[in-house]
Amino acid sequence: MAETLYTRDIIKLATSIPFEERLEIADGQAEKRAPICGSHMACDVCIDDKQHITKIGIEISACALGQASAALMGQNIIGRSLPELKETLRELKAYLAGETEEITSWPSLMALSAARPHSGRHGAICLPFETVIAALDAAIVAKTEALPA
């Protein structure tokens, strides 16, 4: 079972997480934990005036699947918006649950297909997206509150 779950590609991804250093100055921050497995992630983001991510820094403590998900997220996160990320998370959850056969908004996430039958691992896989969404939401709120009345 472990051999099919932790494929060579997943292990390779898990060791190639980009942006794996917290930002000193950020527009928004968030920390999340996956309740079933205890995986943890902290995230800092900077955004532009159109509310797209311009910089990201992460710190993650997770299994290889959570790390692989963070790597896949990091490969294409710059320039993404809150609606895009929410749609990707929705599609990822539906894909992992077997409700759909594709993730059209972020196809590279289908590299995690070996985890579909392992629902206890889904939280770790979704954690990077949930944390970035929370950090991006915090950044948008902070920037909106900072605008002159």
Estimate the global geometry from the Cα principal axes: globular
User: Order of strands in the sheet with the most strands?
Assistant: 1-2-3
Biggest beta sheet summary: 3 strands, antiparallel
User: Count of DSSP E strands?
Assistant: 3
Rounded to the nearest angstrom, the distance between the terminal CA atoms is: 58 Å
Domain NIF system FeS cluster assembly NifU N-terminal: 26-97
Protein name: NifU-like protein involved in Fe-S cluster formation
GO molecular function: iron ion binding; iron-sulfur cluster binding
Organism: Zymomonas mobilis
At a glance:
GO terms for molecular function: iron ion binding; iron-sulfur cluster binding. By secondary structure, the protein is an alpha+beta fold. It has helices at residues 2-5, 8-14, 64-75, 82-96, 122-146, and strands at 28-33, 40-47, 53-61.
Give structural notes.
This is NifU-like protein involved in Fe-S cluster formation. InterPro entries: NIF_FeS_clus_asmbl_NifU_N. It holds the Pfam family NifU_N. GO terms for molecular function: iron ion binding; iron-sulfur cluster binding. This protein has 149 residues and is of the alpha+beta class. It has a single domain, classed as Sufe protein. Chain: A. It is built from five helices and three strands, in the order ααβββααα. A three-stranded antiparallel β-sheet has the order 1-2-3, with helices on one face. Helix 2 packs across helix 3, helix 3 packs across helix 5 and helix 4 packs antiparallel against helix 5. It starts with a helix and ends with a helix.
